[in-house]
Amino acid sequence: MRKPLMIARQGRRPAGLLGELVARVMARQTAAENDIVLELLQLDPADCVLEVGSGHGDTLAKAAGVASRGSLSGIDFSSVMHRRASRRHRGLVREGRVGFHFGNSDRLPYADRAFDKAYAVHTVYFWAAPLEHLTEIHRVLRPDGRFVLAFRAAEDTRFRATHPSEIYCIRPEGEIADLVRRAGFDVVDTLRRTVGAKLMSFVVAGRPS
Ligand SMILES: C[S@@+](CC[C@H](N)C(=O)[O-])C[C@H]1O[C@@H](n2cnc3c(N)ncnc32)[C@H](O)[C@@H]1O
Question: Which of 39, 147, 166, 186 has a Cα-to-Cα distance from 45 of 20 to 30 A?
């Protein structure tokens, strides 16, 4: 069944009371693919890590367990998600280990080369001009840094059939990999994994030195 527009909009940018509910289920629904991303990132204890579209913040909190000496930042343009993540992980925030920032990923509020690793999960569909966001991620990643982009591609026919194109711009996997290259990255690998009913794609990229 096609997702109602009202719910699809909440996936793009959770807002209001319905957004609070969506935020609650989203963390559980996407945990498995986020765990794969954390593996693919090959985190080191001292890594500084950025998540774009950090939502509930649970993945960044898990990353903090591995990057135990590093610092972690998440950015999201939903005030509901930003508030929820900051509250839910207030211990890590208070310790200065994790920072949740409110903002749009087309203009990241971070210095050039600030991060060792970066990732974004289920967010690329909502970027009208993905190259702008990817170029920003490239800018804030250090040379030799690693970037993982996880998404459901057009090859996941069930996803295309159920998610309205008014909200979700669903691109073929190869097109996304090309955009990542055009932003300046070397694409190291493109993987597909079945996660429950989802066919997930993962583009693993590095910033050339
Ligand atoms: C479908 S949720 C995915 C959340 C999380 N990454 C996960 O896998 O569970 C997409 C998130 O990206 C955020 N988002 C979408 N476009 C964004 C943008 N341009 N800048 C910052 N955040 C964005 C939304 O507010 C939402 O919290």
Answer: 186
Q: What's the CA angle centered on 12, arms 51 and 116, to 5 degrees?
A: 10
Supply the CATH number for residue 100's domain: 3.40.50.150
Ligand 1 shell residues, CB under 6 Å: 11-14, 26, 30, 34, 53, 55, 75-78, 81, 104-106, 121-123, 126-127
| CA 24 – CA 84 distance, rounded (Å) | 9
Q: Give pLDDT tens digits for 75-121.
A: 999 999 999 999 999 999 999 999 999 999 999 999 999 999 999 99
Stated pTM of the model: 0.97
Query: Taking the CA of residue 156 as centre, how many other CA atoms within 13 Å lie in the half-sphere pointing to its CB?
Result: 21
> Cα–Cα–Cα angle for 40, 162, 41, nearest 5°?
5
- For residue 142, give its domain range: 5-206
Looking at the DSSP bridge assignments, the partners of residue 193 are 200
Q: Which amino acid is at 60?
A: L
